[in-house]
Specification:
Elements: E1 5-16, E2 19-30, E3 34-38, H1 45-52, E4 62-65, E5 68-69, H2 75-80, E6 83-86, H3 98-105, H4 120-126, H5 128-132, H6 143-155, E7 161-165, H7 173-188, E8 192-197, H8 200-206, E9 209-214, E10 217-223, H9 224-229, H10 231-238
Parallel strand pairs: 3-8, 3-9, 6-7, 7-8
Antiparallel strand pairs: 1-2, 1-4, 4-5, 9-10
Helix pairs in contact: 3-6, 7-8
């Protein structure tokens, strides 16, 4: 485990019923780093994020966030420590406006963070689409706009790190570009990000490193730039 790591995972296993899904998954994120967990459909990307967040039962030799052991901890307590989670399914309050959704997500930064707290106005600068529709009900937004709102609402909780599950899935190319810009801004703000992703172009635009998972096992770990330059690796693990 690296010095200065904010998220440490070693020997993570989990199962759905009798079917084991993750096998000895290990990964580490340094503070301020963006890591893309990549792989084909069903490889175990989303399951890894859910296991880290305490949403499904898991076993591990080490599961630590910001120096705290979070193995077996309920998810809301993990969130209070400063680990945000943005699920693939957009969990927003559809009857509330954009501004009201952001207000619901607001809370004080965990652990006495010195980072400038997020406000609605700061987030509107990063997500200009949301600024234009701050008074609109969430039910009247497109899927991509709802995804941006979900991320913005998570940031209103002032997390130290965020788990992003398939942030670009099913989005129009122009929205994907805006999403990449927003994630890159999160890095500038010092927020650590672990994102599960299949879109190689999106991952290449935002991530420092990648871990590739296949059949519940980490098969490759390295710099994002190395994957970009190695067609054999891309074909072997990602099918692109």
């Amino acid at each position: 485990m690296g010095e200065g790591a904010i998220l440490e995972v070693e020997g993570l296993d989990t199962a759905y019923g009798q079917a084991q899904v993750l096998f000895d998954v290990s990964l580490t994120l340094a503070r301020g780093e963006i890591v893309a967990l990549m792989g084909r459909n069903g490889a175990g990307k989303s399951t890894t994020l859910k296991a880290i967040m305490g949403l499904i039962p898991a076993r591990a030799r080490v599961l630590r966030f910001a120096g705290r052991d979070i193995l077996g901890m309920v998810s809301y307590r993990i969130a209070r420590l400063g680990l945000g989670y943005v699920p693939e399914e957009r969990r927003i309050f559809t009857d509330l406006t954009v501004a009201e959704n952001l207000e619901v997500g607001a809370k004080v930064a965990a652990g006495g963070s010195s980072r400038t707290p997020w406000t609605s106005e700061r987030l509107y600068a990063i997500f200009p689409n949301l600024a234009e529709m701050r008074g609109r009900r969430a039910s009247q937004m497109s899927g991509g706009e709802q995804q941006m709102l979900t991320i913005a609402r998570t940031l209103m909780g002032n997390p130290e790190a965020v788990l992003l599950d398939e942030p670009s899935e099913g989005l129009a190319p122009v929205i994907v570009e805006q999403m990449a810009a927003a994630v890159s801004r999160m890095k500038v703000e010092g927020i650590t990000v672990l994102l599960s992703e299949q879109n190689l172009r999106f991952a290449s635009a935002v991530a420092d490193r990648t871990c590739i998972i296949e059949k519940g096992t980490i098969r490759y770990e390295g710099r994002m730039a190395d994957i970009d330059q190695d067609a054999t690796l891309r074909e072997m693990y990602l099918g692109v």
